[in-house]
Amino acid sequence: MTLRAVLRSWVDHYLSDEEAVILLVVLVLGFAVVIWLGKMLAPFLTALVIAFLLQGGVNALTRRRVPHFLAVMLVYLAFLGVLLAMALILLPLIWTQLVNLVQETPRMFASGQQLLDDLQARYPQLVTPDQIQNWIAMAGREVTQIGQRALSLSLASLGNIVGLIVYLVLVPILVFFMLKDRDRLVGFAVSLLPRQRGLMTRVWQEMDAQIANYVRGKATEIVIVGTVAFFTFAFFGLPYSALLAVLVGLSVLVPYIGAAVATVPVAAVAGFHFGLGDQFLYVLIAYGVIQALDGNVLVPVLFSEAVNLHPVSIILAVLFFGGVWGFWGIFFAIPLATLLKALVYAWPRGIQQRRREEAAHQDREAAEEA
């Protein structure tokens, strides 16, 4: 079969229907807008995600015959309360621990150097002085780069204080109106789409419940894992418990990789604070139990609909979408990969189903005329 014949077969299979072409154009335009205008639309996209998370609470209240506006106000006030608690309690605590960690870095660096010296003295045949010097030089370069990045970030952030204030004001306002006028906004968005949107409807129906389940479940997982990690670290007396707990909570965003990456700072802080003794081992065991319970108990409970994706597909999605959209790309990597998979499977089936419906309609008309 020639290349031309292969291309013609592919076009006939996927793009022979007008509705399929329209769906392709809508998807391309949507991705292009997010890629090129993502920074400009960041407050809107952030508010959209938060409203999507809160809509479940509004729906739960309205099912209990609570008036819609009252349900929106109750959920919105709860959201503002959580936001203020984070701003007044959690963020100052994390910032204080981060400053203390930066100030203690030289002492930790000296302790690490002493540990390497002891290691070389115990096992001179395995660790040479040259290797120790190379490791120390490499660690020094990494610490210097981290300090430079932190300094450049702090200097750059000085000019963005007004933008941050605007961001913090706009997002809650947008969230309120997205919850209050959801039906009106959805109706307006639907009115912009073509009338023939059966394929779009099928793809959206297949993805709506799964995306909602994933986003709300992932947000809940971050809160639960971070909270359990904080109390666990605090129980063992581990310093920087809040900072490490936030890191462990956010690590669930990146499947397979996040848990391994978060292990390094947890083990480093525990090792420098407790030494390589029993307490250090207890902290690592507790952290391993948290990760095991998260993967084997919490995830199956939160995500009622399993994401049927191969681990390689998930990692590729995290790398690609994370590289394109940063944090939000990592957060939505799995739903976006699931969307692409749904499109691949629903697209030809939708076209074939529409053709069968049209053929059946023509047969009925012919039978009526006969």
Automatic annotation (TrEMBL):
Its main location: membrane. Keywords: Cell membrane, Membrane, Transmembrane, Transmembrane helix, Transport. The chain crosses the membrane at residues 20-38, 44-62, 69-95, 161-179, 222-247, 253-274, 281-302, 314-347. It is found in: Cell membrane. InterPro entries: AI-2E-like. It is a multi-pass membrane protein. It holds the Pfam family AI-2E_transport. It comes from the Bacteria. PANTHER family: PERMEASE PERM-RELATED (PTHR21716:SF53), TRANSMEMBRANE PROTEIN (PTHR21716). Belongs to the autoinducer-2 exporter (AI-2E) (TC 2.A.86) family. This is AI-2E family transporter. It comes from Halomonas koreensis. The lineage of its organism: Bacteria, Pseudomonadati, Pseudomonadota, Gammaproteobacteria, Oceanospirillales.
